[in-house]
Amino acid sequence: MAATEVSAKTQEAICSNVDQIQDEMISFLQDLVRVPTVNPPGDLYREGAELIGDQLKKFGYEINYITADGMKEHTQAHPRVNVFGRMKGTASRPSLHFNGHFDVVPVGYGWTRDPFAAAIEDGKIYGRGVSDQKAGIAASIFAIEAVKRAGLKLRGTVEQSGSVDEESGGFAGVAYLAKQGWLGKDKNDYVIITEPTDTNHIYLGHRGVYWFKVTTHGRIAHGSMPHLGVSAIDHLTDFLHGVTHELKPKLATRKTEVPVQPPKSRYASINVNAVFGGQPEEGTQTPCVADRSGAIFDRRFLSEESFDQVRGEISEMLEKYRSANPEFKYTLEDLMVVHPVQTDRSCDLVQTLSGCIQQVAGTEAVFAASPGTYDQKHVVRIANVAQCVAYGPGLLAQAHLPDEYCRIDDIVTSAKVMALTAVQLLGVE
């Protein structure tokens, strides 16, 4: 499907309407930031979904709230509630879907302002999750509203979803929507995920990720006679030393040809997410040799690496330690596997979006890949929608930092790009 040509006068009218509704858009974003939808544990998801849903309903969308029934993450205390809006055009296809996740990571230390006040200062709006990625949700919703206020009706169908749990894998969010048939190649032609991409970057895909847990098993004994026991912590220490001094240097030599940003993320990597073992830090200690210890790892792999190779490398390291020490006992558990994805930069979605970036921002689009994964993995691999990218306001480098912010000018710019892209892909009456 080729993009529809739109007159300069129509494009100017759309951009002018984005400017006119800027205050409404930022006010909505402030309201959304003020709902602390923190993950974990998944606080106030229903309230966040309903805030988005109310705005979509006001703008003429058919609304559905979709709870992730049957998922372990979905509990009475922390229900996983997604919101899905559809605005039918004069034709059901083509269909453009905008998705944004409204869960945010914990606040963390180092903030100098209230993380949920959504304060505006020097043209920036501050708050946890404003850049990653509530600003993107506001931009896509008000982009389509600007098209309507310009007196235009989209020929194709536009959808908007606010989803949960992206920060922990998206399994009760976009993955659930795809598995339940809300997203799919039989319904959607294009998907834009409104992650922060610095307004002029288009993220075509992302690296792979392998989260795994290694648990070492020892034998408990009195701490005054450790020779009678086997320390699981000692064994874990050996493995951690190997990861740091053997595996990391190897990974630092493996570089992808994919344009991952920032450039240092073009190399394979591994990070220790957590370490556990022995007795709890708090409370009364007793003299015991630790009989269980472990760590959780985050291995980012390249499109040039196969998953079998990635996992096999870990298994080989563990087996090496077991061969050297018969008392070295371990279990290796796969926690999450995400394969790399990459959208063809010559497809209609990418070419149309890049042209609109050039038109609005006056700069050529930068094609990149994300250092981390996001929900494109589920759109491509479960929903089977090939034309999917990430584009939205906010600096990627601001994600998860203290004093997270998003420039208001960038939100406006992205909304204009999204509006023009929707008009060209879907056509107007």
TrEMBL record:
GO molecular function: hydrolase activity; metal ion binding
Gene3D superfamilies assigned to the protein according to its UniProt record, in alphabetical order: 3.30.70.360, Zn peptidases (3.40.630.10)
Alphabetic keyword roster: Cobalt, Hydrolase, Metal-binding, Zinc
Ranges in coiled-coil conformation: none
Cofactor(s) needed for function: Co(2+); Zn(2+)
Residue ranges occupied by any Peptidase M20 dimerisation domain in the UniProt entry: 205-320
Record PANTHER family: ACETYLORNITHINE DEACETYLASE
Record-stated family: Belongs to the peptidase M20A family.
The protein, known as: Succinyl-diaminopimelate desuccinylase
